[in-house]
């Protein structure tokens, strides 16, 4: 699903990376407000939905190679965070919707979560177990 469709589904404002909305293809999402969970369980090229607005989230996004971030609950990051994302060509969106509803809307639209669980497989199939942060294959 293109990021522009996600922006419309979540009625989100684009903070940076507007020129990338038609280019970025999102295959899965992860929703978390814990940086440790983001680092441990988020797969590469995922879209992160979070209420975390500090600069560490941009650094984590770069380490994991996220395709973008949606800030939920109307929590707008500061100028430093927006600037950091712009320098890294990392699209940032902002929605007033809570995390749970945002993830639910995208799941119902066909996006899979990072767990690999899917209703299509009866909810009992995991594509792969999360890799530890120190695992060299995360790089």
Structure description:
With 139 residues, this protein is of the alpha/beta class. Helices cover 31% and strands 15% of the residues. It is built from five helices and six strands. The longest helix is centred in the middle third of the chain and has 10 residues, at 55-64. Residues 6-97 form the DRTGG domain.
Describe the structure concisely.
This protein has 139 residues and is α/β, with parallel strands linked by helices. The chain contains five helices and six strands.
Descriptive labels:
single chain; 139 residues; alpha/beta; six-stranded mixed β-sheet; 5 helices; globular; DRTGG domain-containing protein; Ser_kin/Pase_Hpr-like_N_sf
Helices and strands in order, then pairings?
Layout: H1 3-9, E1 13-16, E2 28-31, H2 35-41, E3 47-50, H3 55-64, E4 68-71, H4 79-87, E5 92-94, H5 99-108, E6 112-113
Parallel strand pairs: 2-3, 2-6, 3-4, 4-5
Antiparallel strand pairs: 1-5
**Secondary-structure element pattern, one letter each:** HEEHEHEHEHE
Lateral strand order in the biggest sheet: 1-5-4-3-2-6
Helical stretch tally? 5
Characterize the biggest β-sheet: 6 strands, mixed
Distance between the termini: 24 Å
The shape is globular
The percent range for strand residues is 15-25%
Q: Radius of gyration, rounded?
A: 14 Å
Which secondary-structure class do the elements indicate?
alpha/beta
Provide mean pLDDT, rounded.
88
The tally of beta strands, per DSSP, is: 6
The poorly predicted ranges are 123-129
Q: Could you estimate the helical fraction of the residues in percent? A: 25-40%
């Amino acid at each position: 699903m293109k990021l522009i469709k996600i922006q419309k589904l979540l009625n989100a404002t684009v903070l940076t990376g507007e020129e990338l909305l038609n280019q970025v293809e999102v295959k899965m999402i992860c929703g978390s407000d814990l940086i440790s969970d983001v680092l441990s369980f988020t797969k590469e090229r995922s879209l992160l939905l979070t209420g975390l607005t500090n600069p560490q989230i941009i650094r984590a996004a770069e380490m994991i190679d996220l395709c973008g971030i949606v800030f939920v609950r109307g929590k707008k990051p500061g100028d430093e965070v927006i600037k950091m994302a712009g320098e890294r060509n990392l699209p940032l969106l902002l929605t007033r919707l809570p995390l749970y509803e945002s993830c639910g809307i995208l799941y119902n639209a066909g996006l899979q979560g990072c767990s690999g669980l899917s209703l299509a497989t009866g909810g009992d199939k995991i594509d792969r177990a999360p890799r530890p942060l120190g695992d060299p294959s995360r790089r």
